[in-house]
């Protein structure tokens, strides 16, 4: 170890030298960083401290009863875990957890999810998949549709206008370059849809789960002789699309509001497209049977869904750590990349593509950047939507949602979770 007396000539350069200036700058930056870190730490622990006593008091209530040592330890460990989750959720809703810790926590939850769904052998994994497929066939087409509306689609449109791209595409965009803008990435994904769905001018097109009409209006503009029908489960979305079509002079778009469980239509179509709607569905057998009845004999169905590379699972609210299921995806499904191929009674696959998850990660990161830039404008919108006392909680929830989506699709360089594109023909 070098002591003070063993300093070299380099340690005694004059104050005006380049090395000395760098050292002074580094020292100042380090002090500022440590000061900021200390402030963050105090904020977090202050928030934790406010709820710590309350939560642990609730968790350990009734523990005065007599237990054996082993039994007590087991209960205590479970209680500590539950208490830690409650404390974390409270800190999250108070918006005091730094993004770096939040992202680390999301990655840990993803690791836990993979451990939970992975079986020790391929044989066991395949049996699990077949059981999952069979269970879906016993379910309704969709569940918890009202929850999905409340969580996403009845939120004021002004919020989405502030955070999404120019076309209000509330699904993965496609980034030709990492530095492409969100608007450019939206256009690039629409162009990919048009190519893969084999869209042509003059076709009749059904957009199932049309959101804010981004794809319906894109098709109507690009193919002015086509007739586009959009289906949404939200009156808010229908009102917005109708007004936008009027502003843009688009007379070839019709919007229908209906729950997909009961939706039916007498018309048949040349092309049917569905963008990130199947994730809200359960019984793909019944759904695809319905959709096939709306296709013309030579019609094609194009589907865009987010997927795990090999293992499907449900979004289920089973506890404090099922945050995504509880707040944003109640009743949802994470399909696997090959899941839809098990439901070909009424349609057959023509082509299939996988879009690396980094495109979705970049999309969600762009949403987060735009939200942070407009936070002063967003807070009054949330006050109107959720109530004055819930604003900070929902600012944190939406930021966490965008961070969670970004981290999930960036995981393992976008090769674990991504986007599946499928082209089906009518049987």
TrEMBL record:
InterPro entries: SAM-dependent_MTases_sf (IPR029063). Residues 1-14 have a biased composition (Basic and acidic residues). Residues 1-21 are annotated as: Disordered. Coiled coil: none annotated. Belongs to the CFA/CMAS family. This is Coclaurine N-methyltransferase. It comes from Ceratodon purpureus.
